[in-house]
Amino acid sequence: MMSEPNGPVIAAYIAAAPERVLPPEVADMARLCLADWLGVAIGAAEEPAGRIVREVAAGWHSQGRATVLFGGTAAAPFGALANGTLAHCLDFDDTYVRAITHTSAPVWAATLALGEELGVDESTMLSAFVTGFETAARIGDGLGEAVTARGWHGTGVFGRLGAAAAASVLLRLDAERALHALGATATQTGGLTASFGTMAKPFHAGKAAMDGIVAAQLAADGFTAATGLFEPGGGLDTALVQDRSVTFTPIDLTGWRILENSFKPYAACHLTHPAVDAARGLAHRIEPREIASVRAEIGALAQQITGRKSGEPATPLEGKFDLNYCIALGLHGRAVSAADFREPWHPDAMVCATACKVESLVSPEMSFASARLSVELAEGGCETMSVAVAKGHPGNPMNWDDMHAKFHALIAPHLGSRKDALFALVREFGRGDILGEIRAILATL
Fold first, then answer.
1. Can you state the angle between helices 160-170 and 104-118, rounded to 10 degrees?
2. Coil vs helix vs strand at 199
3. Of 46, 203, 317, 418, which sits 20 to 30 A from 52 (CA to CA)?
4. What is the pLDDT of residues 20-41, one digit of tens each?
5. For residue 346, what is the domain's CATH number?
6. Rounded Cα–Cα distance for residues 320 and 306 (Å)
């Protein structure tokens, strides 16, 4: 029996969101995503990329009710642009690994901005976010690694579609108009991995949020776009993976992909995390001065995106994508937190010296979430640490206590004693009328 075309299936899923009841664990995961989103966005207050985008958007003098973190209010697309960029500045936000997409940065940015603009209730926003997350995940399932390997940033591809889906829910689009919103979004696909380590990478997330809202608003007014882009060989997959070695497969709507989301305990590229886990484990056994050489066995994608770097990054953004440097931070017992990648940039000379002793190689045994480090000691002997599943991934997840610690560290410098009140409100998001209280706290930033 032939399966239904992907586009209509996912469009019908979007249109049915108002009637869909979220299981408690799904709603709770969406709140956990919101806590992470707010933490990393507020924690990025001093990041130049976020400030520049926010200031440029403010210069457009748009009128609207969307809260702009550290910047008043704006029209929904521009609020989403500013906040989505800010949420990805630290490269500390969550990742849906099967699509290799930072999903919450664009989808929560779009959901909150348009939700505030329209005045919808929090439970509707929660449903819109989950629908956007699931849409990005379903379309991106299995394509993430192939797309990334060919130079595309999954957040700029699948995160953009997730933002459009969430906006379509908030605008209550029917299936036909939701499909046109997705088509209008897909034709704006963008974001290059060659931009990693620059301000352009977080901009991908902000622009994805903005474009998703604009596409849904256009579709609401009757704008039409190509509707066959999500079928195998239908245009989007063949543009992204031109050798056609990987194509779209039939959309599978069973289960909840959001329950497979990954959160970052470290403020660096997710592909560095397994090796950082191993390095931090070894830091309890050895002193950096004892290290003669380090061999890191990692997955192919980790090597492509973060390997073969100098170990002496010229900027904090470069440091987040320098595997050798991140391993060295871990071996020196550092938390690999946002504080390790701050301006003004003065990397520790001892950390850089250790980084120059690291050699990385691809191992077929290693996946996105695994790594093995072997440290040769100057006086002989070798210490080894293997990580099968890095902290934050499904199978080794971060829970609310873990998130509270991350949130506290990021928020405290900006909200002080109000941080706990904000965290408590986020844990209740969607259960009552508390968005006003959240906005009041955010207005004090």
1. 20
2. coil
3. 418
4. 999 999 999 999 999 999 999 9
5. 3.30.1330.120
6. 9
Amino acid identity of residue 48, one-letter, is P
Which residues span the domain enclosing 15? 6-265+421-442
Question: What burial class does residue 134 get, using C-beta atoms within 10 Å of its C-beta: 0-12 exposed, 13-18 middle, 19+ buried?
Answer: buried
Amino acid at 296: A
pTM for this structure?
0.93
Structure confidence by residue, pLDDT tens digits, 285-295: 999 999 999 99
Alpha-carbon dihedral angle through residues 166, 139, 216, 26, given to the nearest 10 degrees: -10
- Give, for 164, the enclosing helix (H) or strand (E): helix 160-170
Burial class (CB in 10 A: 0-12, 13-18, 19+), 60: exposed
User: Coil, helix or strand for 293?
Assistant: strand
Q: What's the rounded Cα separation, in Å, for the pair 39 and 400?
A: 13
* Residue 164 within any structural domain of the chain: yes
- Rg of the chain (C-alpha set): 21
Strand, coil or helix: 381: coil
Rounded Cα–Cα distance for residues 349 and 339 (Å): 16
Neighbours of 55 (CB within 10 A): 11
